[in-house]
Model the fold of this input.
Amino acid sequence: MTMMKKLLTSAVASTLMVGGAQAEISGDTVKIGYLADMSGTYRDLAGPNGLAALNMAIKDFGGTVNGAKIEVVSADDRNSPDTSSSTVRRWVENDNVDLVAGMVASSVSIAVSKILEENDRLGIISGSAASSITNEHCTPNHIHYVYDTYPLANGTASAVVQEGGKSWYMLTADYAFGHALEGDVTRVVEASGGEVIGTVRHPFPTQDFSSFILQAQASGADVVGLANAGADTTNAITTASEFGLTQSGQTLAALLLFLTDVHALGAETAQGIQLTTGWYWDMNDEAREWSDRFMAETGVRPTMVHAGIYSSTIQYLNAVAATGSDDAQTVRQQMMDTPINDMFAKNGRIRVDGRMVHDMYLAEVKTPEASENEWDLYQILRTIPADEAYRPLSESKCKLVNN
Amino acid sequence: MNQSVNSADIHKAIVEQQALQDRRKMMLNGALLLLLLAAPFVLYPVFLMKILCFALFAVAFNLLFGFTGLLSFGHAAFLATGSYTTGFLLSNYSGLTTEVGILAGTLASTLLGMAFALLSIRRQGIYFAMVTLALAQLVFFFFVQSEFTGGEDGMHGIPRGELFGLINLEDNLNMYYFVLAVFIGCYLLVQRVVSSPYGQVLKSIKQNEARAVSLGYNVDRYKVLAFVISAALAGLAGSMKSVVFQLASLNDAHWHMSGEVILMTLVGGMGTLLGPVVGATFVVNVEYQLSQGPLRDWVDPILGGIFVLTVLAFRSGIVGEVQKFVKKNLG
Amino acid sequence: MTMIFGVPLAVLSGQLLIGIINGAFYALLSLGLAVIFGLLKIINFAHGAMYMLGAMVTVLMFDTLGISYWVALFLAPLVVGTFGVLIEYFLLRRIAGQDHIYSLLLTFGAALIIQGVLVNIFGVSGLRYAMPDMFKGGMNLGFMFLPYYRAWVIVAALLVCFGTWFVIEKTKLGAYLRAGTEDSQLMQGFGINVPLLISLTYGFGVALAAFAGVLAAPIYSVTPVMGSSILIVVFAVVVIGGMGSIGGAIITGILMGVIEGLTKTFYPPASSAVIFLVMVLVLMFRPSGLFGKEA
Done:
């Protein structure tokens, strides 16, 4: 009897909940705004190809959701929070955009999430690295999907220390992002019984790293950790290889490397570097199948960000279909309640702070001999389980988490 | 005898013409004002405020470049100082009303402007441009290093607060009219400065500095004052911008921003009062429209193209070319 | 171990050498700017873009036609120089006689176009370019490991710098050039084609930038945006040296490389700002730069 009653009430409650949220799609259209760097430093890791991934998702979903149209608008964020906020404000206040996707530069993501919170719309951030996005900057209106600095440090640093890389020398971009990554790495290294014996903070951007590589060599550390991104990282790696850093017995650990960066370096220069990634195109059949389609569309292999944009869009549309609503909170709740199992992640879940936690992978760049083609670049060494990888909620400073 | 009648006639005609021109100008200004007052009901207020802030920035820059002939390649420093100062104060001291934050931001950039001016004013032409660029790079470095700016993440969630503790600026319309009022006030101030005897001296410095010196003017003092006013207004633009967008970022301090304001002024028409306003409106719109449309991947090359085209074909800018046209065809 | 301000002497000597290498590189880049400004009074804000083009052309010639590094060393500057001649002929010539500022704005616009178009074609991640085989490896100097390629950069950059200085300051051709740009009517009267001379001078100046680009291709990430941040640094070098002073640009380039290198050792975060600090200080005491003539 009690059992029956319980079941009944919960059934009624869930019907009511759906009813209460006014199960309808506003304007009979689901409108998605894609905002990303289309022309600057971060163009390749999301950019125009991210839009292609988004459109692939919509096409695969069938082009409509519960009979409502799916529309896409897109804009270049110019890597500027001003431009992005005026764009997104107009999107949500005038154009009834329901979801903002993409977003790379942390300044852009944080600015946009504030506007989404004000207007109660949803955002899914796929490109940004800053873990503060779901920590001190968390809002009930955005989800951070692909990766952040926390698992990057966790995965790479702990693996390298375990292999005997006890003493570290950090080459850090003198920027909030670099400082955060350096802090995370230091914590992980020390927790695993290693030590950071020196740090050099270089301006962003820097073209010539020879002076810093020389200092790293002189430090005598086992490991040189690169807490920077993009062209800074590729330049540092090129210079390290030129100055024979690895030949002299030191290991190079890059904390943030995208497939596009490694592709630019080539296996010859980048071989042996260990890195943490949220996804790799060749990691299983499903991923391969999807990235073949992506490549047919764009001519390149997808980065983890591209895959994340595809996956998150499908998840979002599924949630809209299931709830019959495009209300931000309803959809977000539904997305939180639904585990993610697709070409991007197995058993991924979205936490209350908006962090999508999923398994991360420790990879090593293949040697030129092992690499079969220009995109055959990583060998996955180990899976880092979701719960180990991401910052636990118990350490969270997010206002949505009761600590 | 005849001649004196004639000259009286001519005098009368001139006066009439002057009156006609004045009336025309008044009508134009009135129409513009009405447009600006009605605009937020038709167009998107935050976007309009963005235009007004950049227009103020360009007007400030033009006072120096267009009227005094000094090309500063470091005006981003003032914009950023204004926006960071205001943002910092309003975020951290909830007791402050908005106008106090804005005034403080303006004051900070005024002081910075004074420092810049003292270090750079003796330099000529390209050296002046380069010293201001160098100083602005040092300011950029300071902002990158400072904790309070939030580095590349930027400063977010700056409260708009209440004007004089009374008017709620969270409301976009209230905010808009406040920005508009400040903008018009500054525009009139610059107009006043330019048409005053002081402004005449500035123009004569621009045309021929040696002559101005030989006429006994203390040229450096005039230039410093122009620089300081320009920096103050640029800072005010930054302060307003940080309140409107509720954020301040390193983009404001980057040298590309100094380049952008040159583009705005040049496209609109340097050395005219309305030019920078038109230029800012044009550039902000072009950038915005392009970044949304099918050409969104091509914003930079198109802006570059506008630069090239303006320098080659429309050196007097939109307003300058219109003025030429009007002079030629409408007398 | 001998220590200087807490830094081992060996490390310091390494940093000095690195500073000189980077300085030679800056010298090469600023030399082109100084030639263009000194002779033509053009403020070439497209210099960074031309440097980038030099590197891009090197990579693309190798990828498509298999053209080797050594050939690219001559061919890439030639290609980019020709492109520069076209820019001078079609764009810059039209604003000759106007305020210098217009040349700055025009070349700035041109650089935005060049860079933007290439970003759309090649992306921003960078193109791969392998180090030529003969430069692989390096030598141990005791205090540091010096890659052969860096040694070559110093040699090549200094040779080209010295050669340029010699031609412009010490030869008849240089004299014609200087005279032609100072009093074009007179030279025209002597039967010298001054407009052609101007086009070629601009082309030569940007070819120098392209040469630096070729030198950069094997050691830096080759992307369409690689020239944009180096541009203002190089400008600072030229201004410190005295705009238009050819020898000044070379000496200042090396000096700035060393100062930057030392900053990278003692206070790394300031290494991008230090050049601007030096510039402000120098111009306070010497309004026309270290080697410039009083205006």
